[in-house]
Amino acid sequence: MFHLDNNSGINVMPKQKQTISRQQKWFTEGDTQTPPSYPGADWFNIIQAELLNVLKDGDITPSKSELSQLSAAIKSIINKNQIKINDASLITKGVVNLNSAVNSTSETSAATPLAVKKAYDSAVSAQQTANTAKNIANAAVKRTGDNMSGALYINGEPVLTKRAFGLGVSHVLNDESIDETKNKYSGFLFSQPQSNGVKPFNYSHVMRSAINDSFADFAVDILSKRAKFRGVLTDEKNAGYSGDYSWTEFITTQNMSNYLPVGIPQPWPTNKPPAGWFECNGSTFDKNKFPKLANVYPSGKLPDLRGVFIRGLDTGSGLDPNRGILSYQGDAIRNITGNVWPISETFGRNGGTGDGAFRAFDIVAAGTPTSTDRGESGGFSFDASRVVPVANENRPRNVAFMYIVKAE
Q1: Domain around 3
Q2: What is the enclosing helix (H) or strand (E) of 173?
Q3: Contact 268, 404 (CB under 8 A)
Q4: Cα separation of 340 and 351, whole Å?
Q5: d(C-alpha 145, C-alpha 170), whole Å
Q6: Coil vs helix vs strand at 92
Q7: Quick one: DSSP state of residue 164?
Q8: Can you say how many angstroms the Cα of residue 351 is from the centroid of all Cα atoms in its chain?
């Protein structure tokens, strides 16, 4: 872009002529009736001034050699006058991003209608859930002091039914006794460490059912996994009670072994000992692995109880003296004695014969014939099997069990 550059121009732009017509007009080449249009110097001066001012505002110096100055000037003007818009924040205006998420933590994003709808739907669903829970709660258990009107369910199963089960208010025991008056009700009591195991023992849960002064307690010892119970029933002669009543512990097939001392022998009805027990067969055991068993059998050897009976140690009774603990004793019977006489002079004088429990001996043959014996002489034999059952040992009637010993 450049101004008129020849000797036909003048140095100062002439003053614009007065406006001839307010009506917008256009160029024409003319015809037989209308002459062609001519712009005149006034029009060209106006156009040149407009264009040069555009370059000036765009900080562009006119040059004949550059044919894109007008567009460059327009861009420059736009850039100079453009308003910069920053991102919006909590304290300043600006541009924000649209966001349809309902869990966004952004403080520069704007929620879309979709996000608003999602939040609304979620709120409606939460309100419906809350209303349902409220209705269930109102139907099952009322406020404090109200009566229950409806069944209470856990995992779909009823736990409280009318006149079937009473649930008392829980009470925490400190150093007090469960025999105190305030603890006489139907319900659950929870013993804390502060009770020092006195009532009834450490970390126990007690369930009590009571009417007036009659009650029954059931307790579970959490640490030792034991269960105990006790009960006190009143009558006309005993309108009340005082003091602590002893507890009776439940013994089951699962915990019975806990109450048998290590090393005690027991009869067992199978050919294989249960876990934690050994057969009493005279074998040795690892004293380091079974220290409690070694305290009972310091030799590290178990007694051999196969085919024998256990006999109580004579600790001064005199029935089986001079015996040590775990000592073995062979079989025996009391001595059987007896005499048979008279038979004949020859029997006594010649020594005679005898077997088993019988022996011949010399004795005056008073009342026997005085003449010489003639013919064969007689004798005696002794056989107990003729009248009683016999065997190669002395024994009572019995049933065979395997003797086992608790090892741990």
Answers
A1: 1-10+46-76
A2: strand 171-173
A3: yes
A4: 14
A5: 16
A6: coil
A7: T
A8: 90
Query: Does residue 371 lie within any of the structural domains?
Result: no
Q: Is residue 58 part of a domain?
A: yes
> Tokens for 280?
């009493």
State the pairing for strand pair 248-249/152-154: unpaired
Distance CA 345, CA 368 (A): 7
- 338-385, pLDDT tens digit by residue? 776 656 656 655 656 666 777 666 555 455 555 555 555 556 677 788
Q: Which two tokens stand for residue 96?
A: 């924000």
Inter-residue contact 278 to 285 (CB < 8 Å): yes
For 114-143, what is each residue's pLDDT tens digit?
Answer: 888 888 888 889 899 888 877 776 665 555
pTM over 0.70: no
Q: State whether 3 and 62 are in the same domain.
A: yes
Alpha-carbon span 88 to 97, nearest angstrom: 9
> In the numeric block, which tokens belong to residue 356?
């088993």
Task: Identify the domain boundary among 230, 249, 268.
Answer: 249
Total number of domains in the chain: 3
The four Cα atoms 104, 106, 107, 111 give a dihedral, to 10 degrees, of -50
Count Cα neighbours of 126 within 13 Å in the Cβ-side half-sphere.
Answer: 6
Q: Are residues 127 and 173 in the same domain?
A: no
DSSP 127-158: HHHHHHHHHHHHHH--STTSPP-S-EEETTEE
Residue where a domain terminates, one of 249, 271, 303? 249
| 128, 131, 132, 138: CA torsion to nearest 10 | 180
Report helix, strand or coil for 116. Answer: helix
Pairing between β-strand 214-221 and β-strand 204-211 as defined by DSSP bridges = antiparallel
In a domain, 143, yes or no: yes
Going by C-alpha positions, the residue among 270, 278, 220, 272 that lies closest to residue 250 is 220
C-alpha 329/C-alpha 319 separation (Å) is 14
- A 10 A CB-CB count for 221 gives 19
pLDDT tens per residue across span 271-302: 999 989 999 999 999 999 999 999 999 999 99
Q: Phi and psi of 136, rounded to 5°?
A: -65, -45
